[in-house]
Description:
The chain is α/β, with parallel strands linked by helices. 43% of the residues lie in helices and 13% in strands.
Amino acid sequence: MRVRLRGLQATLLACYQVCMRTIAIVSRKGGAGKTTMATHLAVVAEAAGLRVALFDLDPQASAALWSDHRGEAFPAVVPAQAPRLAGLLAQARTGGADLVLIDTPPEADGIASAAAAAADLTLIPCRPSALDLDAVAASVRIAAATGRPFAVAINAAPAVGVEVAEMRAALAGAAVPVAPVVLHQRKAFSSRMQEGRTAGEHEPDGKAAAEMTALFHWLCQQVRLLPDEQPQAVTR
Length: 236
């Protein structure tokens, strides 16, 4: 049996973990990295001692297939449809989940809107390119319409160049919140996805693992998910 919580970590979580948090990962543009981000965050959260459920609302079921390749019960990945989302969230809450991540399909306003409306925070992955920046407005409108917190997460950024700075400036000019953590284009994020593995599992000391862990802790700050994680303002 897998040992999930140990020692002081278990005590802290018991004291501070009072209600489930939900994060929707939304992008109207295909190829933005939603599933990679969702699965990696789920594994990082499990490693932090959280009980995690990942709801896969994408008809392509990429996250569910990733879980099949992984062959493990944790993190729990549930293929789902938008009409069942409220019921599934209620089940997750009753079952003691600490964190629910919702992976959504591109080009599906209704599903993305339902996920964002149910979330404590919506995360919008976006590559630093002109085409992606043009497309991100639709995702921002979906998230902003809920009145709940949201932020763009710059993903697959080049290691060098001005693209990230230019994207930050453009989003700041439109008053769009941006996560301070940038995920760069790194082979480790994708090289073991077909095995159901993440960057942190096969390169635990690598830069990809460090970036995803930093993004996870920033998200924890925003939704008050872990003890000692204080909320910080998003970058604008």
